[in-house]
Specification:
12 helices, TIM Barrel, 275 residues, globular, nine-stranded parallel β-sheet, alpha/beta
Length: 275
């Protein structure tokens, strides 16, 4: 069982939902990332989603685009991100780590080389935003060889047929984007999310995480009532941006946000989930 599957199993037994923070590796400088990862775990994070900086992050809004720019100014490459994961693993061998980013850096490295390097570093899952499952066979083969979970996105417009196709090749969990658009927007409709998740659950046994639009403790709690995981990104990256010139304050500030979300999620009675 992968770290991701084991974490969801343990949380389900405890009647809790996963809190998955996203930060861009190397933002605002490379020295911040690994200590921040440890601080997020201490604050209640169950899985860490680490963004790989890319020069053309087309699925992301201005907040995460700016984070990529800050990281790229420090020449944070895919290999450097893998080194950060390796450093994190020196002290934490339990918390799952997912890399989220775009295909180009992986293709430059080569699928097999990347998969082996990611496994060696301690990566548990990979979400490549711009790689549809229909074109992912070669990449999936390499990930399977090293037992890394491929994570895929679902959206409000994803048809049942396509959900089945995606779920057939995904593992770990499925990431449901709560609305059409880019990261950082603010259009969360929990009722609509709940309805769509209900439809998706009829088609897959994989846990369902929800991201986009999670901005505070209340929205995290509301989503946790209907999802297996809450993914929070732009709300954290915004705070990192505000403290880019005071990096020593970032870990404490992000930890405060996550602690509030964790507390609110744990206090929120979960709705019955039909599987």
């Amino acid at each position: 069982m992968s770290r991701i599957a084991a974490r969801f199993t343990a949380l389900a037994k405890a009647g809790r939902k996963a809190l998955i923070p996203f930060v861009t590796a190397g933002d605002p400088n490379p020295e911040v990332t690994v200590p921040l990862m440890h601080a997020m775990v201490a604050a209640g994070a169950d899985i860490i989603e680490l963004g790989v900086p890319f020069s053309d992050p087309m699925a992301d809004g201005p907040v995460i685009q700016a984070a990529c720019e800050r990281a790229l100014k420090h020449h944070v490459s895919l290999r450097k991100v893998l080194e950060m994961v390796k450093q994190f693993r020196a002290q934490d061998n339990d918390t799952p780590v997912i890399l989220m980013g775009y295909l180009n850096p992986v293709e430059v490295m080569g699928y097999a080389t990347f998969a082996q390097a990611a496994q060696s570093a301690g990566v548990d899952g990979v979400l490549s935003v711009d790689l549809p499952p229909e074109e992912a066979h070669d990449f999936l083969d390499e990930l399977k060889k090293v037992a890394i979970d491929p994570i895929f996105l679902l959206s409000p417009s994803t048809s049942d047929e396509r959900v089945r196709k995606i779920a057939a090749v995904a593992s770990g969990f499925l990431y449901y984007v709560s609305f059409k658009g880019v990261t950082g927007a603010n259009r969360l409709d929990v009722g609509a999310v709940a309805a769509k998740l209900g439809s998706i659950r009829k088609l897959t046994q994989l846990p369902l995480g929800v991201g986009f639009g999670i901005r505070d403790a209340q929205s995290a709690a509301d989503v946790s009532a209907v999802a297996d995981a809450v993914v929070v990104g732009s709300a954290l990256v915004n705070r990192i941006a505000e403290l880019a010139d005071q990096p020593e304050k970032i870990a404490a500030t992000v930890s405060t946000v996550l602690t509030e979300m964790r507390r609110a999620m744990d206090a929120q009675p979960a709705q019955a989930v039909q599987r």
